[in-house]
Amino acid sequence: MSEQAGKIFNISTFLVETVRSCEQLWLNRCSKKLGFAHMYVPLWPGDVYPLGAHWDGKGTNFAIYSENATGVELCLFDRNDEETRIELTEVSNFIWHGYLPGVGPGQRYGYRVHGPYAPHEGHRFNANKVLIDPYAKAIDGNLRGNGPELFAYSWDSPEQDLSFSELDNAALVPKSVVIDESFDWEGDTLLRTPWHETIIYEVHVKGFTKLHPDIPKKLRGTYAGMGHPAAIEHLQRLGITAVELMPVHHFLARPGHLTDKGLTNYWGYDSINYLSPYSGYSSSGSMGGQVAEFKEMVKALHRAGIEVILDVVYNHTGEGNHLGPSLCLRGIDNAAYYRLVDGDKRYYMDFTGCGNSLNVSNPQVLKLIMDSLRYWVLEMHVDGFRFDLASALARELYEVDSLAAFFDIIHQDPVLADVKLIAEPWDIGDGGYQVGNFPVRWSEWNGKYRDTVRDFWRGEGTTLGEFAYRFTGSPDLYYQVNGRRPNASINFITCHDGFTLNDLVSYNDKHNEANGEDNRDGESHNRAWNCGVEGATDEAEILQLRERQKRNFLTTLMLSQGIPMMLGGDELGRTQKGNNNAYCQDNEISWFDWELEKENEDFVNFTRELIFFRRQHPVFRRRKWFQGRAIHGKGVSDIAWFNPDGSEMTDEQWNVGYAKAMGVFLDGNQIPSPGPKGDRIIDDSFLLFFNAHYETIEFGLPSVLELDDKEWLVVIDTKEPRFIKEEKTYTNGYKVPVAARSLVVLRCLA
Fold this sequence. Notes:
Layout: H1 3-34, E1 52-55, E2 59-65, E3 71-77, E4 83-88, E5 90-92, E6 95-101, E7 108-114, E8 117-118, E9 123-124, E10 176-177, E11 200-203, H2 205-209, H3 223-226, H4 229-238, E12 242-245, H5 256-259, H6 289-303, E13 307-312, H7 329-337, H8 363-378, E14 384-387, H9 405-411, E15 420-423, E16 443-445, H10 447-457, H11 464-471, H12 475-482, E17 489-492, H13 501-504, H14 540-559, E18 563-567, H15 596-599, H16 601-616, E19 639-642, E20 661-666, E21 686-691, E22 697-700, E23 711-717, E24 729-730, E25 735-738, E26 742-749
Parallel strand pairs: 11-12, 11-18, 12-13, 13-14, 14-15, 15-16, 16-17, 17-18
Antiparallel strand pairs: 1-2, 2-6, 3-4, 3-7, 5-6, 7-10, 8-9, 19-20, 20-21, 21-26, 22-25, 23-24, 23-26
C-alpha cells in the first residue's frame, strides 16, 4: 500500500469509527427510552411496499398512506409505555415510509399524523392523537377507557367537532404490534368444498365456546376454544361443512354509549382494523399470539373438513359520525378514506346506519380492502367471506351499481378466484335492497327466502308460487337475470340478526329491554308466531306445536335448492328470551347453553339426521336449475307440483293467497349435472307434502307420474320428533294424512 493510499485508508477508518461512535451514542440514548438493552434503530429510507409493519428478520419496514398529511411520526412504545417519536421523511406516492434495523416482533407502535384540522373541508388531522396502523397485523387489546382524549375535538366546546383538542390519547389507545408472520401450516390448503355440497353454520367464536363444559376454562371464548376437539366434534356430528364466523377483524369493543350502560359491542360490527384478528378472542395474549392462535384454529377446522368463512365489515368503521373518536382512518386521512357530504365535508355519507361509509371510489381504499382479503386467504387460509351490507360497497356515487369498481377488482383477482363470496345484499340507503342483483360469482343472503318461508309456515297469505320459487333456489331472482346457479341463493330462516329459531316460534314481539333502549331497537316486523302464548309456557300442546314448527322450518331449509345456512345454537333450542337484537349482550343471553343439548336431544338428533339426509341425496342439492318451466306445467320431467287431491296445479292456483297446501315431486333420475369424474348422478325420487293449514289434509299420490306400481316410504313426518324408523309405505289409490302444520317426505322404492 502506498503512503497516499495509507493516508486515505486511515482517514476513511477514522470517519467510519466516528460515525459508529455517534451511532452508538444515539443507540444508548434510544435504548434508555425504548427499554431494549441493545437495539440499534437508525432510520433508513425503507420501501413503499408492503404497507404496514413488515419484519424481514433483521429489522422492520413501516409504511402508511396519507394523501393530505403534512407530516407523519412513527411512535414506538416500550414496555413502560414510554414513547419515542421518529419522523418519517420519505414520501412516495403519498406513502410515508421508513426502515428501522433491529426493531422486530413484539414492538408496539402507532402514528401521529400532522395536517390541517378543517372539518368543513374534510380534514381532521390532530397530532395529539396516536393512531392505529390500518395495516397492523396485531393490536394489543381494547381501548383503555372512553375519555375525551380519544376525540380530535374538545368535549367541552360549544363548537363540538369544529373545536380542537390538545389532549394526548397515548395512554388510552391500543397499540399496533410488529409480528413474526412465520407459521408451520403442515401442508394445509383451502378446502374448496363445492358450493352445492356446502352447509353453513353461522356462529360467534366467543358465544359458541364460552360455556362449553368440555373445553378447558382458559380456552373458552377463544380461537383455541373454537379449534378444540370438543367444539369440532359437535360441528362434525351435525354434518356442517363450513362455519361462518361473526366479525373477527379487530373491532371497537367498548364504545362509550354502550360502556355507559354496562354493555359491550358483542357482535363486533365496528371494525377499526381489517388485517388483525380481534385480540379479545385470544388465549395467547395480544402481542401477536392472537395471529398464531387464529391460524391454529383454521388448521384444526380444516383437518376436520370444515371451511372457515369470515363475516367482514368493509362498509364502515367503528369511528362513527362526525362526533366519533379519532382512532385510525379519521386521523390518518379523513377525506381520502371516508365518503363525505358534497357541499359540507364536515359530515359523512351514511349508508350503514353506523355513522360513516368507506370511500370505495378511492383507489387506496379499494387497495386496503383487497390487501385485507388477500391476506386472510394467503396468510390465514380462510375459505371465503360474507360481506356485511355489501350494497354500500357497490355505490359509485349514490346509487348501487352492479358494474362498480368494487366488483370489477374482486372479479379479476386470482387469489379470490377459488374462495366463497357472499353478499348481504342490502344497506339502509335509497335503493339499497339488491337481493338478486349481484354479479356472477357472488352468492347472496336471500332475505326473500327467509320472509317467504316464515310467512308460509305461520299461515300468512303467501302465494304458493312465491313459496315454490324459494324452495327451488329462487330462479326468479337468479336464473333469468345473469345466468347464475342455485348456489347464488344462501337460504336461511334465522341468523344472528333477529330471533333464534326457538324464539321465532315462541314470541310475536321483540323483547329487547336488556339493551337499554326501551325496546325501540331491533326489527319490529319479524314474521314470527308464538303458537298461542307469548314466551315461556308449560302448556304441552303449545310446546308440541312449537317443536313441530321448528322441524318444519329446518326441513324446508335443508331440502330447498340453494345453500342452507343455519344459525348456530338453533339445533340446541337456544333462546335469547325474545331479544332480536343481542348485539350488545356479551352474556348468557347470547352464549350457548350447552345444558340444552340433553334437554332437546330429539331435536339435536333430528337436525343431524336431516343434514345427513341432504348430504346423502343429490336431488336436494342440484348444481343446476330444474329444467322446463321453472315452477309448473306438464312436460317437466325433473319436478312437478300437485294439489292435495293429486291433480297437477293450474296457473290460477299458484296465485291463490289462501291456499296453504301443495305437493312436489322431485325426480332423482333427471339430474343433468355429472359427478366430479363425469359420471351420471342417479338418486331416489321423492314426494314432499306441505300442509301449513290448521287442519289435517289427506294427500293423494299423483297419478300423472305413472308410478302406479311403485311404493312410497315415509321418511320424514314433522309431527314426529325424529325421522321415521318403522316402515310405513303407500301405493297409488291410498291417501297420505298430513297433520296440521306439518311436512311429510316420501321416498320412492325402486
